[in-house]
């Protein structure tokens, strides 16, 4: 049984997760949290861990969803991923991807940016 998302961010994460699973990635964890921050999705593709930041925007007026992953946000993601690797997957190959969900719920466009930073 699937649960209905409670907000737009959660809905975007569910959409991104389903999309990436259709592309062959395997979900390991949703919303991994530690003191350093949070990673929306931790997935596996082949022998690599993929740390995924999901961003949702209704329109591109202020640069769109992908542009909202600032340098400060990237640093928090790096620190959180380092924590994950140290405690859950020492020595694993890893990369950072961004999934940008643009538009309203009835017409959304998904952009998957591999090796985003």
Task: Describe what you observe in this structure.
The chain has 117 residues and is of the alpha+beta class. It has a single domain, classed as 3-Layer(aba) Sandwich (Trna Endonuclease, Chain: A, domain 1), CATH 3.40.1350.10. It contains 3 helices and 5 strands, in the order αβββααββ. It has helices at 8-22, 64-67, 71-88; strands at 26-34, 37-45, 48-57, 93-104, 107-113. It has a 5-stranded mixed sheet. A hairpin with a 2-residue loop joins strand 4 and strand 5. The longest helix has 18 residues, at 71-88. It is globular, with a radius of gyration of 14 Å.
Estimated structural class? alpha+beta
- The radius of gyration is 14 Å
- The share of residues in helices is 25-40%
Proportion of beta-strand residues: 35-45%
Mean pLDDT: 90
User: Which CATH class?
Assistant: Alpha Beta
- pLDDT < 50 runs, ≥5 residues: none
* Largest beta sheet: strand ordering: 1-2-3-4-5
CATH fold title = Trna Endonuclease, Chain: A, domain 1
**Principal-axes shape call:** globular
Amino-to-carboxy terminus distance: 35 Å
Query: Per CATH, which architecture?
Result: 3-Layer(aba) Sandwich
Count of domain modules: 1
How does the major sheet shape up?
5 strands, mixed
Helix segment count?
3
User: Oligomeric form of this entry?
Assistant: single chain
Query: N-to-C SSE series?
Result: HEEEHHEE
**Total count of strands:** 5
């Amino acid at each position: 049984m699937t649960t209905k998302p409670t907000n737009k961010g959660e809905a975007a994460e569910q959409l991104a997760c389903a999309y990436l699973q259709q592309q062959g990635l395997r979900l390991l964890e949703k919303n991994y949290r530690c003191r350093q921050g949070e990673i929306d999705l931790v997935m596996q593709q082949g022998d690599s861990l993929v740390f995924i930041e999901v961003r949702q925007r209704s329109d591109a007026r202020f640069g769109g969803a992908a542009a909202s992953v600032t340098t400060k946000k990237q640093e928090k993601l790096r620190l959180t991923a380092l924590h994950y690797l140290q405690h859950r997957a020492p020595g694993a190959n890893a990369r950072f991807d961004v999934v940008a969900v643009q538009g309203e719920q009835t017409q959304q466009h998904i952009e998957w940016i591999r090796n985003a930073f």
